[in-house]
Amino acid sequence: MSEGESTKQKVANALMELAKTEPLDKITVRDISRLSGINRQTFYYHFKDKTELLNWVYETNFLRPYMQDMNSENWRERMRDFLYKLRENRGFVMNSTINAFSPVFGYIIQVIADLFRQFVISDDLKRSLSDSQIESYARFMAFGFFGTVRDWVRKDDGESPERLIEMMEDNLKSGSTGITTRLIDAPV
């Protein structure tokens, strides 16, 4: 990891630690800088503002490691690991996605839709879907996925990640989108 990436991760870790117990609007750049052991100028060298940092945290620590290159063969394992990571960071997740107007919400949906788009394209073996259909499926899946997972994290009722994956799979199989049935029924 380069020095710049290492510094960014230190800043990210500080935000994640602070947001375990505090809502984002109560956390300042000064708080983040102090906990990470950097000065404010260094913070602003790496990130434009807290929103950019938050986006970076989700992309590098939660989304990319678990969802990049997701396909019909590996999605259950990646999803399970992702859900465990979210559960381990429940306080942070709850305080950073309080509502649909959270600054990170739109970013997360876009990243998840991009990942689902790759998933849909890779499993559309006959290339029968139009670009607009692919986009529609990807965004639909992203909103459904994000909402379901966010509710699961918030409830924290002991439902296992494996059970949540089973429920998601059942919902996708019973969906009306044709492609979802092909994606889920693909050989593993």
Helix-strand string: HHHHHHHHHH
Give the DSSP E fraction (strand runs of 2 or more residues).
Answer: under 5%
Average the pLDDT over all residues and give the rounded result: 83
For this structure, the quaternary state is single chain
Rg, Cα atoms, Å? 18 Å
N- and C-termini, Cα separation: 34 Å
Q: What structural class results from the helix and strand content?
A: mainly alpha
Report the helical percentage.
over 70%
The number of strands is 0
* Largest sheet data: none
Number of helical stretches of at least 4 residues: 10
**Rough shape?**
globular
| Uncertain residue ranges | none
Brief synopsis:
With about 190 residues, this protein is mostly helical. It has helices spanning about 5-20, 30-35, 40-45, 50-65, 75-90, 90-95, 105-125, 130-155, 160-175, 180-185. Helix content is about 70%, strand content about 0%.
List the helices and strands and how they pair.
Elements: H1 3-18, H2 29-36, H3 40-46, H4 50-67, H5 75-88, H6 90-96, H7 105-123, H8 131-155, H9 161-173, H10 179-184
